[in-house]
Structures are given as C-alpha cells and as structure tokens.
Design goal:
mainly alpha; 2 helices; about 90% helix; single chain
Amino acid sequence: MDPTQLALMAAGLVAIMASLVLPRLVHRLAGRRKAIGARSSVPAAAPVNEAQLTAARELVVEIDDLSTRALARLDSKIRVLNKLIAEADEKIAKLEREKLLATNTHE
C-alpha cells in the first residue's frame, strides 16, 4: 500500500471517528455541565439546548460532507497520477528498447 492510499485511509478514519464521537462528546459535556452546576455554588453555564445540539449535528454532517468531497478529489487525482506514471513507464520502456536496438544494429 502506497503512502497516499494510507493517508487517504487515515483521513477517512478521522472523518468517520469525528462523525461518531463528536455528537456523543457534546452530549456528555452537556451532562457534565448539569452535574457540576448541581453541586456547585457558582452558577452553571446555560445548559445546551436543542438548537445548540442541532447546530453541532449539522456541523458534523458538514464536516463529513467536506471530508467526503476532499477524499473524492484526492482519489481522482491519484487515479490521474497513476495513469501518468503508467504512461511514463511505458515510454521509458520504449526508449530503452529503442536504445538497445540502436546499440545492437551499430555493432
């Protein structure tokens, strides 16, 4: 597996993990805020309301969409580069054959 594919897989994994973990983290932090507010004499910050949770979820969806589009672009560029590399390898092989033929005919 080449480094580019490895990097793409890592980026995809990060995007998936972010989409799975972020909503749970927001929910857990909201619960902690409530617990801290209940046992503290200092007034707690306003609890996370539904609008904030919705905004966080939308942000996760947007991040996921952005990462999907970025990975698709990278995948497309990788295909083009692989094609160009294959073409270059073919041209190199052709030039080496021609050079070998030229050397053999002059001897």
